[in-house]
Amino acid sequence: MDIDNVKNACSAGASQGSTGNSGSGPSGRLYAFDGPAAAVLDHRGAVVRWTVAAEELTGFRAEEVCGRPVRDLVADLPDDLRDAAMPASGRIRLWHQCGDTIDVTFRTTKVGGSAEVLVLAAPTHHVADHEQGAALLRALSAQNRITIAVHDTDLTTVQTNAMLGTADGRPVQPGTRLSDVLCAKDAEDLEAVLRQVLETGAPVVRRSQQVSWRHDPARQQALSLSAFRLEDARGRPTGVAALYVDNADQMRARRHLDLARDVAERVGKSLEFVRTAQDLADVLAPAFGEFVAVDLAHSVFDGEEPSKQLGGGDMGNAALAPATAVWPAGIKRGEPVPRLPDHPLRRSFLHGEPVVFGLDDFIAMVKDPQLVEYLVPRDTHSVMVAPLHARGLTLGAITAWRCGRSDPFTEDEVDLMKQIASRGALAIDNARRYTREHRAAVALQRLLLPPATTDTPAAETAGVYLPAGGGAGSSGDWYDAIALPSLRLALVAGDVVGHGMPASATMGRLRAAIQTLADLELEPDELLTRLADLVQRLAAEAPFGDRDIVGGTCLYAVYDPVARRCAMASAGHPPPVLVRPDGTAEAVGISPGPPLALSGMPYETTVIDVEPGSVLALYTDGLVERGDRDIGQGLPRLTEALAARCRPDRALDETGRALLADLADQAPRDDAALLLARTRAVPAADTAHWEIPADPAAVSKAREWITRQLTLWGLDNLLFTTELIVSELVTNAIRYGRPPMDLRLIRHHVLVCEVTDSSSTQPRLRRARTTDEGGRGLFLVSQLGGRWGCRHGQNGKTIWSEQAIHGSP
What we know:
Radius of gyration: 52 Å
Oligomer: single chain
């Protein structure tokens, strides 16, 4: 179809053109287009040459166009151009072979020195796209933080605005490969990503990438990579366009968030302030600085509040990180921190603000090269010191050093450190306050406990105590060994409900109550009954919400070295273990009563025979109960350990420490207390017994018997006073008591006189008037003896008196 027919034909009935990335006519058809169409016109405007691109653009072949005026190809030619020469450039509509018109933009130029004119034309929308793309490329290339690179199918750089990849700062030249700019590993990783984009067509958007420059491998840069495949008009891959955005700010913000999260998660879990300080240093190094030290006020190490004016010289190092680093000679854990000179920046530190020094500023402030070498790590270029400020107190400081090629500290890092230091200070202060309370509770509890070892005629004892957490906590466990009249010994083990200061205070009150009740020489069951009444009163006095935590358990035992028997009762406490001289051991079978917080049920006294040289072990449940075993498993284990370790040739305190080390956890959740008592016996030759007949004449016979016995023992110097004491006690027993009646003498470091009768009447000491004929018996006994008393048993009462034997300890 020639041009004339095209002009006369209906565009709707024209044949379809090939589809592609092309120009389009009013009908919306697309026409293939790979590049600008070209034609050469003679001086009359007739076409003399016609390119293949022109054929593809218009659909007309060269033989159909050549020799004809170019105006025949123009649709809707403006009147002002019909007779005028071709303009230098413009926009017109051309006929297409199918009958459509094509909106094109053209440009003309003279060919050589001839009259011929070269016309270049392209679809207008392609020209607009090209201009917009060029403008976009120029805009992107002008951005300082955006690097754009166009690579061909071999990933060779075609065009880029990169200027950071060369040592002299010149732009990266076309023809350069990534391996010429980046380190080999980074270049290989990036080329793998770009090759995948080129092969699949799937774009990569905002991929985080760390790269190192070939000429400066130590320098790294965080980039965000976006890559897209480039295609020609027919959809064939022609290369890859890559955009590299400087991601340093985002990466820095992410690192700051990660660091703040790590501080929140890892700092403050421990209630030991040194451990808390070390956790803080470990989080900050090397994420924040290559070297980090945490210094605390000397008073903080003692759990006390620091002084208001805290500075260098008032602090000691608590933590260093990393532990494997080579530190200057002056930075040592536990060593005092030298006092630095006054400086305006240091005064900012005292007001709670972090301070940043460059190395030169720090040297100028210190004014002592030796001190700088003493304090500053090698290659340091920046120092940040942040106060640990909490509750209006400056507890210490965090010091961070940056060395080598790392960047100096920035303002946002100063703000970050201020937040981290605030959180760390609160954690350290919480640990400090806990340490103070814990030390006070442990000190109080240890003051309330009896001496670790005792030595009495009845037994030698050794007590050991392990606070909860291996010293990190305290509870209300206690033990006691109370010397009683007639050479007897009371052994006590108890456990109060709760922990801390309240438990220690309750334990002290119960221990004092037991000592008072023990002086009344009550039977074990009666003593526990009265102790339970006391606990009930303590619970009633406690605040309403704390009444359920007032209570405890207790085991009370009384060993008599003359009878070689031990009477005991339990208020919900584990049974004692008896280790015999032959090495066999067993738990004593007792009937435990209710814990001390309960009432309404009686306690039962159990009496056992004990051989001299036996070991009686009283303990608390922290020694036999732990996370992986209960008392049913722990008691046999304790019994076996006692049988193996309680040897006659081994000191009791050494045995107790070894048992605690073997049986208790390294950091037990409950206190553990152990009381060991190796029993003794008073030899039969040191005791004498005589039955008193219910006859007033027995008084004189008792004096005769006393004279013979004391003469036999060589205690002639005590004859006179002993005769008077025995006369009064026997007289009272015959007059006021009931038979059977006994008189017993016990010789040890004291001489004990005991008179027992079956009456339960309580003797009472009173001062007789001058006109009274009686009432002076017990007064004489109290004056002649060192001390006297009365104890009640199941079958009556015993009145006793003691006199010191000269020369005895």
